[in-house]
Design goal:
Strand content: under 5%
Radius of gyration: 16 Å
Order of helices and strands: HHHHHHHH
Number of strands: 0
Number of helices: 8
Distance between the termini: 50 Å
Largest sheet: none
Helix content: over 70%
């Protein structure tokens, strides 16, 4: 199966799983931003950008802390590993041949980064968050916590091009809190 067919299959899968159109758009835009940052990233990176948070759509998921301020490294790693498990099971069921170890590493480390591809994935996630998710986030959480989250999403970006793209998105996000 060629890479385009694999991506189309993964997109169809997440479209069935993710009922919230904002969250679906967030995943799709994360992949778009990943390709904007590096158009030659691996198929595993592209799949990870589409699916990194998929376990949040599943019944058997890592319990989310009651307050997002309580998210810690252990939660984020378990969340990533659980997402990787679901994605790899789906791909194996469809006999797709990709580097499952690499895909698992990328999804498991999408929050922390750690190498070129996981850093790009984290940066693309932040860009997409700042573009797509901020409005709903600001409605759900306090101004103080939203301000903290928006700054965190901007500050964790390392890629120079991503930082340039993020600045106007961040400025618009902060206007929502005025």
């Amino acid at each position: 199966m060629n890479y385009e067919k694999i991506i189309n299959l993964v997109e169809s899968w997440i479209e069935k799983l993710i009922e919230n159109p904002v969250i679906l758009n967030h995943h799709l835009r994360t992949r778009d931003y990943l390709l904007i940052l590096d158009s030659k990233v691996s198929i595993e990176s592209q799949i990870s950008a589409l699916t990194y948070d998929i376990e949040r759509q599943m019944e058997d998921k890592v319990p989310t802390p009651k307050n997002e301020k309580e998210y810690d490294e252990a939660y984020l790693i378990n969340h990533g590993k659980n997402s990787a498990k679901y994605v790899i099971n789906f791909l194996e069921e469809n006999d797709l041949e990709i580097d499952f170890n690499k895909l698992s590493f990328l999804i498991s480390n999408h929050e922390a980064g750690g190498n070129y591809e996981t850093n790009l994935l984290r940066d693309a996630d932040s860009l997409s968050f700042l573009e797509v998710v901020v409005e709903g986030f600001a409605k759900k959480y306090s101004k103080e916590f939203s301000r903290h989250k928006f700054k965190y999403m901007l500050e964790r970006i390392e890629n120079k091009k991503a930082k340039e793209l993020a600045k106007p998105l961040f400025e618009e996000a902060m206007k929502l809190l005025d």
